[in-house]
Specification:
Elements (H helix, E strand, L loop, with lengths): L2 H7 L4 H16 L6 H8 L3 H7 L3 H14 L4 H6 L6 H7 L17 H9 L4 H25 L4 H22 L3 H18 L12
Helix pairs in contact: 2-3, 2-5, 5-9, 7-9, 7-11, 8-9, 9-10, 10-11
Length: about 210
């Protein structure tokens, strides 16, 4: 093996290649269907190199998810952070984000949701990361809901999180992005009901 081939298959950039391969294969085939041999082949690293960077496949899954938290926020989180929209528009923009779809048109949905389903309680670190991500998303929804003037921002945030997560799950189950479009209209109703001031009762008519 030449020195160039050794670098390509070994240390320099190996960790990043493994995580890029994981992102591609987990989205395409799923976590359980992606074996170590396939990961090393796509990442162009040896099995020994892979285990030097990650002690287990669970550790690869956890690192794959952390990238969405630390480096490349999910599109919904990006919408909540936009500075060109007011708070109400940012909440609605979350529901304009199309579900994640593979190049062949298959809807894969949220990688955190997919990981939680596949882990099924057998990957504690992954389960913790998924819970952390979902709670943080709801917390951010509550912050933006409060900015929009919601009377009860925490309740609105939980309702919107439920609608968002349910929509993604249904889109994945049906392999159809239509639920996302339907959810936008429902979100608009929920938001407007939550931020419209309650109509004051009319004073009792004097007898």
């Amino acid at each position: 093996m030449t020195n160039t081939e050794s670098i390509r298959r070994g240390g320099r950039g190996a960790r990043d290649r493994i995580l890029r391969a994981a992102a591609e294969l987990f989205a395409q085939d799923g976590i359980h269907a992606t074996g170590i041999a396939r990961l090393t082949d796509v990442a162009q690293v040896s099995t020994r190199t892979l285990y030097q960077h990650f002690p287990s496949k669970d550790a690869i899954v956890a690192a794959y998810l952390r990238r969405f938290i630390d480096e490349t926020p999910r599109p919904a989180a990006v919408q909540l952070a936009r500075e060109d929209l007011d708070a109400r528009a940012r909440l609605l923009a979350v529901f304009l984000v199309e579900p994640t779809t593979r190049p062949d048109g298959v809807v894969r949905g949220c990688p955190f949701h997919n990981a939680a389903v596949e882990a099924a309680g057998t990957m504690p670190e992954v389960t913790e990361l998924v819970e952390q991500h979902k709670r943080e998303f709801t917390r951010r929804l509550a912050e933006v809901a409060a900015e929009a003037g919601a009377r009860d921002p925490e309740t609105l945030a939980r309702q919107l999180a439920l609608l968002y997560e349910g929509t993604r799950a249904l889109s994945t189950s049906l392999n159809d992005t239509q639920p996302a479009h339907d959810a936008h209209e429902l979100a608009k109703t929920l938001i407007d009901q939550a931020i419209t001031p309650l109509r004051e009762s009319s004073p009792a008519t004097a007898s």
